[in-house]
């Protein structure tokens, strides 16, 4: 019997909706997100994307098992409610998304933190296969994390265990983070602050980055490859910050594998060996070396993870 489901990844800049048949992704639709305007205003566009997928693959009423939503914030998957947000879809806690799903498609609903769902996707279908002890880290607009320990998805009493690795403090007198803390990994080296970080450097105007219209990690790594001194210095600083955050995650959760995902993996040939070397040098792991692996599923990981959890609740 064929089982259809919809997996949704609510990103800070893009919303990705995928139609799956027996946990195999058939196709996904990507729409621009205006996360600063809230989730309610994005729902009509999301409904259209989902309806287009269902129509194209002739998924009739009653054939859709459910809709799973991977959300960039703290979520209670038992009550199916958003608990807390961080400058993205801030109206989320006021919405009844289970009712929305039931009314629109008469289907079951599941919701979880996006980093947790990326971890499940990689664990079941991707780079984490074969190990029941993994940490997943996604570096993009922000930095998310999740841990699976001895085959159990870590949540905690208040549903925030494991998923706040981007908010580990790496510099106690550093930048103010959107979460309210000071010196988080995310505040020191994520997409939302990299432009400010580059422009604040006293050597900015001497750098080729001064003529770039869009300052992101792609531009940073590209300029570094062209021997731009500022770009190389900031690139190394960012990789050191990511490494420090990952070492803290290793000390906290004791994984065998760390799966690294997000937009920075455009430069994975440089980033993965660098972090692997730092982890081997500085992580306290008397049992052996933690493997640092690149995501195999990339942006599809949360979609596959949340669709899997519809039929296999963890």
By helix and strand content, what is the structural category? alpha/beta
Main β-sheet: number of strands, strand sense, barrel status?
A: 5 strands, mixed
- Compute the number of strand runs: 12
Q: What sort of overall outline do the alpha carbons produce when their principal axes are compared?
A: globular
Low-confidence stretches at least 5 residues in length (pLDDT < 50)? Answer: none
List SSEs in N-to-C order: EEEHEEEHEHEEEHHHHEHEH
User: Which strands sit side by side, in order, in the main sheet?
Assistant: 3-2-1-4-7
End-to-end span in angstroms?
23 Å
Q: What fraction, in percent, of the residue positions are helical?
A: 25-40%
Indicate the radius of gyration in whole angstroms: 20 Å
The percent range for strand residues is 15-25%
- Count of runs of 4 or more consecutive helical residues: 9
